[in-house]
Amino acid sequence: xxxxxxxxxxxxxxxxxxxxxxxxxxxxxxxxxxxxxxxxxxxxxxxxxxxxxxxxxxxxxxxxxxxxxxxxxxxxxx
Length: 78
Ligand SMILES: [Zn+2]
Fold this sequence. Notes:
Elements: E1 3-9, E2 22-29, E3 47-49, H1 63-72
Antiparallel strand pairs: 1-2, 1-3
The structure holds zinc ion (ZN).
């Protein structure tokens, strides 16, 4: 199963803003817009590869997604 990180935008911001602000990174299955925590994310939202998980580029991270991701990818941190 492949994953990627997808941004949740700040209130009133959108991916179409010139300099969109986002609140938090969620984790989704590749090519899906529903985060592991159940949050529906914008299909146009910026994404990062799952490799950014746990790096400064992937902060702040949704805690619920982080917990699910560790559970589903137990060897990720090895
Ligand atoms: Zn989440």
